[in-house]
Write a structure and sequence with these properties.
The protein has about 425 residues and is an alpha/beta fold. It has 15 helices and twelve strands. It has a domain of about 210 residues: 3-Layer(aba) Sandwich (Rossmann fold). It binds pyridoxal-5'-phosphate and zinc ion. The site of pyridoxal-5'-phosphate has 20 residues, from helix 6 and helix 10.
Length: about 425
């Protein structure tokens, strides 16, 4: 692919280069196919420009926003200027902007586990989690296509909208405030009061969404879709609603792959809606394709017993492979065409200490399962005791203070060790994705 394109992985639909808001496949909702957009990066893109501590400058050529800017006549310097202006505005709201986050060995915890353990610390990132990365990719894209000649008058900018109760909502609110854009946030009735106060203080319109009797699926998502149907733009961390959200999330793994550390054997990633893991596996694939690294880790994904729709989907794919002697590619193609047989809302009301990964559907499931197949990875489900133990271990052995959601990847690693998937002495990466509030 000589130029960057947004392509649907189910039907091959491709967004027009001059489309302003190409966030989902035009055929989405038709049939049982999983119409998920993927950014196929231009072959000649330079993944790592090595020229900044800001990941959105350094890895700018991996962003569809950069390609959209260049296609609209912007210079590279124009784009860098945009990143810097937005970053300064974010710093005025949140105290600091984006910078490459720490990634290094955790010797005390590693020796306790008998592993060469490496930790990526996202707890001091913008708004206290990795979520702002996803949204910065979107914000840059919006600034490119809405600004300048042929853009949108300031008074006519559509509102932004997101469904979330925690980290994603906070990140969206900080970024929308920095860009002076109105934002609607759809939250469940049990969202934390302190979080809601912060959202309101920063100017977001917060809408509480109770579950209707017998309702399957997330009521916040139902409200979000209504808002989108009325013209709001999906400013969210779910690739099915906005395929572009995966781009910015990839900076996390690009940072770890390019920091000069020895290659990891395994990477363990916690999964809620799935955008984070999707970004991780797609960053691995890009890095390999573009020759940035000689090999990538086996990627394992983690869910809680409270809600594990991705583990269920992966088990069904594996069943197909075993019972019909199908290749992974064939089984995954079948899954892409028959979503309802592989992914549907978790039936029981979900509960866990890791409340941030309780999404009752894994919206980015297909991209993740492809990544598991490509990297010889796996899917694990952890119980509440393991989630609590993992969080305690991090607090006891490091200076990092993640939430239970933030340390859920480590819980998955404990489980992978018990199963023997991860062997003593292996080099393993874990993402501490969000701070305890
Ligand atoms: C701290 C933290 N880590 C990980 C995740 C999981 O990300 P995703 O929903 O993209 O799977 C979330 C989602 O809310 C989160 O808040
Ligand atoms: Zn499609």
């Amino acid at each position: 692919m000589n130029r960057s394109a947004l392509v649907c992985v189910a039907c091959g639909w491709q967004a027009a280069t001059d489309a302003r808001y190409p966030f989902a496949c035009a055929h989405r909702g038709q049939g049982d196919g999983e119409h998920l957009l993927e950014h196929r990066l231009a072959r000649d893109a330079v993944l790592d420009r090595h020229d900044s501590a800001n990941p959105f400058v350094r890895f700018r050529e991996t962003l569809y926003a950069w390609h959209a800017a260049r296609a609209r006549g912007w210079s590279d310097a124009d784009f860098v200027g945009l990143v810097q202006r937005l970053d300064e505005a974010i710093a005025r709201v949140d105290g600091h902007g984006f910078t490459i986050t720490p990634f290094g060995p955790a010797p005390a915890l590693g020796s306790h586990l008998g592993l060469d353990l490496w930790i990526k610390d996202e707890t001091h990132n913008v708004a206290g989690s990795h979520k702002a990365r996803h949204l910065m990719g979107l914000l840059l894209y919006l600034a490119v296509v809405e600004g300048g000649p042929g853009g949108v008058a300031a008074g006519e900018l559509p509102p932004l909208a997101i469904a979330s109760c925690g980290n994603a909502a906070l990140a969206a609110t900080v970024l929308a405030r920095a860009a002076a854009r109105p934002l609607q946030v759809y939250v469940p009735p049990d969202a934390e009061g302190a979080v809601l106060d912060r959202l309101s203080a920063l100017g977001a319109t917060v809408v509480v969404c109770p579950r209707l009797p017998g309702e399957q699926g997330d009521p916040c998502m139902r409200h979000l879709r209504q808002a989108l149907a009325q013209g709001a733009l999906p400013f969210c961390c779910q690739g099915n609603e906005n395929g572009l959200t995966i781009d910015g999330g990839q900076t996390l793994l690009l940072e770890t792959l390019t920091c000069g550390a020895p290659p990891l054997d395994h990477l363990v990633v916690q999964v809620g809606g799935g955008a984070l893991a999707s970004a991780c596996v797609q960053a691995c694939a890009r890095a390999l394709e573009h020759g940035l690294v000689p090999r990538v880790p086996r990627v394992h994904v983690v869910q809680t017993q409270g809600a594990a729709p991705l583990a269920r989907a992966w088990a069904r794919v594996q069943q197909r492979m075993a019972s019909q002697s199908e290749s992974a590619a064939a089984a995954l193609a079948c899954a892409a065409a028959h979503r309802s047989q592989f992914m549907w809302p978790w039936e029981a009301p979900p509960h866990s200490v890791a409340s941030g990964i309780l999404d009752d559907e894994t919206y980015d499931w297909l991209a993740i399962l492809r990544g598991l197949a490509a990297t010889d990875g796996s899917s694990v489900v952890v119980d509440e005791d393991t989630l609590k133990l993992a969080n305690r271990l991090v607090h006891q052995t490091t200076a990092i203070t993640p939430s239970h959601t933030g340390s859920a990847g480590l819980a998955g690693l404990l489980q992978l060790q018990r199963q023997g998937t991860v062997a003593p002495g292996n080099r393993v990466g874990v993402l501490l994705t969000g701070v305890q509030r």
